[in-house]
Amino acid sequence: xxxxxxxxxxxxxxxxxxxxxxxxxxxxxxxxxxxxxxxxxxxxxxxxxxxxxxxxxxxxxxxxxxxxxxxxxxxxxxxxxxxxxxxxxxxxxxxxxxxxxxxxxxxxxxxxxxxxxxxxxxxxxxxxxxxxxxxxxxxxxxxxxxxxxxxxxxxxxxxxxxxxxxxxxxxxxxxxxxxxxxxxxxxxxxxxxxxxxxxxxxxxxxxxxxxxxxxxxxxxxxxxxxxxxxxxxxxxxxxxxxxxxxxxxxxxxxxxxxxxxxxxxxxxxxxxxxxxxxxxxxxxxxxxxxxxxxxxxxxxxxxxxxxxxxxxxxxxxxxxxxxxxxxxxxxxxxxxxxxxxxxxxxxxxxxxxxxxxxxxxxxxxxxxxxxxxx
Amino acid sequence: xxxxxxxxxxxxxxxxxxxxxxxxxxxxxxxxxxxxxxxxxxxxxxxxxxxxxxxxxxxxxxxxxxxxxxxxxxxxxxxxxxxxxxxxxxxxxxxxxxxxxxxxxxxxxxxxxxxxxxxxxxxxxxxxxxxxxxxxxxxxxxxxxxxxxxxxxxxxxxxxxxxxxxxxxxxxxxxxxxxxxxxxxxxxxxxxxxxxxxxxxxxxxxxxxxxxxxxxxxxxxxxxxxxxxxxxxxxxxxxxxxxxxxxxxxxxxxxxxxxxxxxxxxxxxxxxxxxxxxxxxxxxxxxxxxxxxxxxxxxxxxxxxxxxxxxxxxxxxxxxxxxxxxxxxxxxxxxxxxxxxxxxxxxxxxxxxxxxxxxxxxxxxxxxxxxxxxxxxxxxxxxxxxxxxxxxxxxxxxxx
Lengths: 374, 400
Known about the structure:
The complex is a heterodimer.
Chain A: E1 9-13, E2 21-25, E3 28-31, E4 36-39, E5 42-43, H1 44-50, H2 53-62, H3 68-80, H4 86-90, H5 101-112, H6 124-128, H7 130-148, H8 163-172, H9 178-190, H10 198-208, H11 213-225, H12 232-241, H13 246-257, H14 276-291, H15 295-312, H16 321-332, H17 340-358, E6 368-372
Antiparallel strand pairs in A: 3-4, 4-5
Helix pairs in contact in A: 1-9, 2-17, 3-7, 5-7, 7-8, 7-17, 8-9, 9-14, 9-16, 10-11, 10-17, 11-17, 12-16, 13-15, 14-15, 14-16
Chain B: E1 3-4, E2 14-15, E3 22-26, E4 34-38, E5 41-44, E6 49-52, E7 55-56, H1 57-63, H2 66-75, H3 83-95, H4 101-108, H5 116-131, H6 134-139, H7 146-164, H8 178-187, H9 193-206, H10 213-223, H11 228-239, H12 247-255, H13 261-273, H14 291-306, H15 310-327, H16 336-347, H17 354-374, E8 383-386
Parallel strand pairs in B: 1-3
Antiparallel strand pairs in B: 5-6, 6-7
Helix pairs in contact in B: 2-9, 2-17, 3-7, 4-5, 5-7, 5-11, 7-8, 7-17, 9-14, 9-16, 9-17, 10-11, 10-17, 12-16, 13-15, 14-15, 14-16
């Protein structure tokens, strides 16, 4: 018996499977040379301009924007799942508050996963019923994890608020104003999907084993937790926070440039030109910082960006999305250690879209390893 | 640049050196793809050879306890080469079974009906919150307490078994091997050395087997420089799939109701005639007998006999014989899960607990490979190919 029939092709790839094409996709198109990011054909700039996170999540998952009825039903479904199992919150009492917030959030998700309906069903129909639950539970649990850092109790959901605003209200204990809510929502929209990055790849491997969608998300979260990935926004912000003012930023940057330093918040494996997500988010960050008397922070960022890009843009190194999101999360009042959480929450959408796309025809992903005899 | 013929039967399982980039054939599920070079173990499914760090599995099965095999896989050194180093490794392993009470309490707060693999994943995740602080994770000094994790997973599995059997928390002890302590937690009696040896053997044989999905998932996660608890949570998530984790449970469901070898033959013929699937048969890589099966078959014969359950072995043989009569010509053979599930059963485990038990063994290989990958880390970041909708603009009214 041959385990695999079907199409084989020759490919050339490097360590880390660099340049290896794993699968076809209809979810996102990324053009790293022109700085374009499109979800299901729509440029992310337009989606950030006109859509809610709920609409974008629907688009990413289903392939088309929802019509009026579909949008209402989807929003309703998301709201229905805003209350995760109480056991997941009860677990907080047994988790030290100096743990990393993403690890607290992960633990709450693994416990919620012990209380899911149709737990052991992994047919396509059951899998398609899961995204709304996973997104809404994730938001509530993530908010609970953030409150746990300050020893505070989780808060109930606010039914009248949209997905992004409700998350902020649950995490911060106060309702965000319109500017804050929209800035945060836009940050979720532009981070809802980004192709087959390492975390999406980890999720895809897990779904290919026949596991449930929640298990795939947990694997994605693992990859995202690493400093090479989701932790990058925290690192970038903490680095920026050490710089007192624009002058300091420039001096520090010049010093580091001479040492061929890898600047946190700069450079991207795919984008060799300005990152489209940065262009969308910068005006929101600037405005939030200004209204919160944090203009200095903005000028410091701008100075650092000018200095680093001035020297490195010819090598294709520009400010990346990890460097700018912290400048939205910080004025909202989120602690830096919690920055990977909203990124995770947004991009779970994309992971699930890739998993659901892979499922119908996907083979279990198991490459080979070569034994080295030297 | 070398080009490799990698169709499954031609995969270059062993090379003197590997030069990147490589050109190879690529099939569905990344069949034929060379993901990495490794010195941890050698697997050549076309000849049936499996070796940990160059030592054939048959020899390891006969001579090594699990703790020794774990040391070999992770450090690359035979315990006999440096007895002191091994003793230090083993003592650290045994001390690490002491779990934070809050992590145990958290697992015990879960409903007994929850699938044990989900309990284990929650337990490992909770452990990570105790072991790693927010400071650790960004300090750059990665706290690779990998040895601890093997012992912690073993201890957690023992606690999960006890929780499911409605028994109180297990007393912590350092004087015995992981296998001894785990059996004791599982059965609540002093296990005899023969049973301990069987569990050691099962763990040794499950310790490493190429880049299967749980191991590869862990490597991808590790390549992002995540902390080890994320790796294990991700690996356990991949193990949860019915294709991998559910195999032992299905074997027991199929074999245990059978009363006689004759009934077994009839039942197998019936299942195959109706196009059904036999649990514990077939392997993606092996189209010849799996070398690990030979060892386990012999072990089941011995264990069944000394328990006065020789008929269980006869029934298992009858299932295998009848199945192979029809399937062997198609290259389908019995796999490790078949005899392993029956052995786990004799040791006192029920079906759902089996994947948790073999996960303990797999921790050794998984951590050895993660360790190896981190010596020279490179992010796993392949590509997908966009074949979707062409660029379009939002409808005029927006989407609202």
